[in-house]
Amino acid sequence: MYKVDLSPDPKEMAAIEARRNREKEQQSRFFNVQTRGMGVDVKALNSQVEEQKLRDTTEQSKEAAYGTYQKQYDLVAQMLEKEQAERTRRLAKKLQEFREQKQQLRNRPQYNLWNPSRLWMEFPACLGRSDPPCGLASLQCFAGEDRERAMCLKMQQEQFTYGLERQLQEQWQVTADEKCVDMLSDQLRLAMDMRSTQIAKVEESRRVAMMSAMANTNKAQGPHQAAELAERQRREWQREQEANFMEIQNQITSDLLTENPQVTQHPVAPHQVLPYCWKGMTPEQRAAIRKVQEVQRHEEEAQRQANQAQDAKWGSQTLCLAQATVELQEQERELSAEFRRGLGSFNQQLAKEQKAQQDYLNSIIYTSQPMAQYHLQFNTSSR
Fold first, then answer.
1. Of 140, 114, 139, which is closest to residue 127 (Cα–Cα)?
2. Per-residue buried b or exposed e for 147-169, using 16+ beta carbons within 10 Å of the residue's own CB
């Protein structure tokens, strides 16, 4: 009834063998204490993580490429928009020029027929409130209306042109006057220089003539005049020396060159000093400054010692904390080693139990393995 003597299919045998090998490999991973993680396939998880990273990298590269393309497309779109706007502007400009040149209102054939102001233009403009053709209800003249606006504008333009020309003429006249004044001042300066040169020459000639006359007079008067002149010069020199000696004596004995501290006091405010008469600090002031400096030095020394003590305290505290940290790390290492030892023994015990169970299953439960003919017969019967 069933064909049980058929030869096994090589493809099916290869598939069964491959599945059996995969199961053995999975069992080796499951029962390996060093690589397994309480029922978790670490290798499969790692492969999944790598695949996820690869997918993320691919997605990032795609997004970067998409962003680059998007920027290029945006630039192209902006260029196209600018070109379209420029084309629209040129077309509008050409259309406006064509309308201004070829489609003027006066050149239209229907201008007179469709002129909305034709009826208003048939009547002459009202020249005033007392115009006979128009009555009070004609609405031809309104309050605030200026019918001579064009004439006023023309007069204002002419007046502005006249004022501008007058300002230009005034500026030119001012420039010419300035040039003339500069030229006259230069000529006057030159004439004054020439006059001063001439006066200097006359003074020099007069002085030379006077000196020569005095020399001639001295020669004529003889040695008596020379002795009097020498005596007069000696007396002048002696008087000058006495004046210099008195000035030196006054400078030495005055408060200007002495070390009198009372000179520096302000006459109105005694607590202030006169900078231009200050002779320096007194010994009492210098002693007070040195005393304050000594106090500051002691305070700085005390502060430095306090800082050193605080630094030493912080250093000792840091050292204690480091020692405590080292002890805690040592305790943590000991606890971790003890935990690893307990976990290893537990894993060994669990591996022994699993191996005993697998041996029980292989030796007692799964004693007879189905052959290929059984799988073929089972597949045929299922069909």
1. 140
2. eeeeeeeeeeeeeeeeeeeeeee
pTM higher than 0.90: no
Decide: 29 and 36 in contact? Cβ < 8 Å.
yes
How many Å apart are CA 123 and CA 139, to the nearest integer?
A: 12
pLDDT along the chain (383 residues), means of 10: 60 89 82 61 79 87 81 83 88 85 65 60 57 60 67 85 87 87 82 82 82 72 69 88 86 69 72 73 85 93 93 90 90 89 88 87 73 66 57
CB atoms closer than 10 angstroms to residue 264:
18
Report the alpha-carbon distance of residue 277 to residue 264 in Å, rounded: 5
φ and ψ at residue 265, rounded to 5 degrees: -75, 140
Q: d(Cα 6, Cα 378) in Å, to the nearest integer?
A: 13
Residues 375, 11: contact at Cβ < 8 Å? no
Q: Which residues contact 138 (CB under 8 A, 6 or more apart)?
A: 126
Report whether 274 contacts 264 (CB < 8 A): yes
Q: Which of 288, 322, 351 is nearest to 36 (CA)?
A: 351
Residue 247: both structure tokens together: 């000035």
Question: How far is residue 306's CA from residue 314's CA, in Å, rounded to a whole number?
Answer: 12
Spatial distance between the Cα atoms of 242 and 234, rounded to a whole number of angstroms: 12
Separation between Cα atoms, residue 250 and residue 244, nearest integer Å = 10
The residue written with tokens 């497309």 in the block is 73
Taking the C-alpha atoms of residue 383 and residue 377, their distance in angstroms, rounded to an integer, is 10
Backbone angles phi, psi at 366, to 5 degrees: -100, 65
